[in-house]
């Protein structure tokens, strides 16, 4: 961990205050077109109202955002939950649906500013976010293919739940990865 990096839990109010800074970071980290931020804003605000929502920020000495991770308790009726249920039921069966979806935390977003990646900040964020999460499992989705995100998830023991899955409305294949909590 760099000594110039500070980690802080953000309340929902603090998250809303930093929303545009957080979305700028997200767009830069994911290399998405600029308009993506506006499109995502209402969704991120809705997420912050969900049961079990928690967020950890990495901040520099000027209090600027270097990284962000958040998630919440997954539950039926949420779009992501229903998409993953459909995929799991179709390929792995109902036992897998119950195993993974009965009691899980969805890691929804994790991003580090491009010029600060590759220094362990993402791992620090993830460990802090998942510490004391009460759910039995953590699940996430990530685009297929080698990436720094994949290396991070594998290093922390995430295994395959569903591979090459296509969410409705997105042509890219995704992997759903998961592991039991707590982290070691
Ligand atoms: C995925 C992402 C959040 C990971 O964050 P990160 O800070 O870059 O990565 P990590 O915390 O895993 O850093 C580990 C890397 O730092 C290096 N490192 C340097 N000092 C370190 C330290 N003290 N502790 C741990 N790792 C350290 C490691 O060698 C490792 O290198 P590697 O990834 O080349 O193997 C970040 O790369 C990112 O925002 N990517 C783009 C957006 C994205 O893909 N988000 C996830 C979508 S599903």
Q: Could you walk me through the main structural features you see in this protein, from its secondary elements to its overall organization?
A:
The protein is α+β, with helices and mostly antiparallel strands and 184 residues long. It has one domain (6-180): Gcn5-related N-acetyltransferase (GNAT) (Aminopeptidase, 3-Layer(aba) Sandwich). The chain is built from seven helices and seven strands; from the N terminus they run E-H-H-H-E-E-H-H-E-H-E-H-E-E. The protein has helices at residues 12-17, 19-30, 36-47, 79-91, 94-101, 121-130, 148-155; strands at 6-10, 54-59, 65-73, 104-112, 137-143, 159-165, 174-180. Strands 1-2-3-4-5-7-6 form a seven-stranded mixed sheet, sandwiched between helices. Strand 4 (104-112), helix 6 (121-130) and strand 5 form a beta-alpha-beta unit. Helix 4 packs antiparallel against helix 5. The longest helix has 13 residues, at 79-91. The radius of gyration is 16 Å and the shape is globular. The protein starts with 5 loop residues before the first strand and ends with a strand. The mean pLDDT is 96. It binds coenzyme A. Residues 1, 29-30, 110-112, 117-123, 142, 147-149, 151-152 line the site of coenzyme A.
């Amino acid at each position: 961990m760099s000594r110039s990096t500070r980690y802080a839990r953000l309340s929902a109010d603090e998250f809303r205050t930093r929303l545009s800074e957080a979305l700028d970071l997200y767009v830069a980290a994911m290399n998405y077109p600029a308009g993506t931020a506006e499109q995502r804003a209402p969704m991120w605000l809705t997420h912050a109202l969900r049961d079990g929502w928690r967020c950890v920020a990495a901040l520099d000495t000027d209090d600027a955002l270097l990284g962000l991770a958040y998630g919440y308790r997954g539950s039926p009726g949420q779009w992501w939950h229903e998409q993953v249920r459909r995929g799991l039921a179709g390929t792995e069966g109902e036992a897998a649906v119950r195993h993974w979806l009965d009691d899980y935390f969805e890691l929804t977003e994790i991003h580090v500013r491009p010029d600060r990646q590759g220094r362990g900040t993402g791992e620090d964020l993830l460990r802090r976010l998942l510490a004391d999460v009460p759910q039995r499992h953590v699940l996430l989705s990530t685009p297929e293919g080698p990436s720094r995100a994949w290396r991070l998830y594998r290093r922390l023991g995430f295994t395959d739940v569903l591979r090459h899955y296509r969410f409705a409305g997105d042509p890219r294949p995704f992997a759903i990865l998961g592991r039991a909590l707590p982290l070691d």
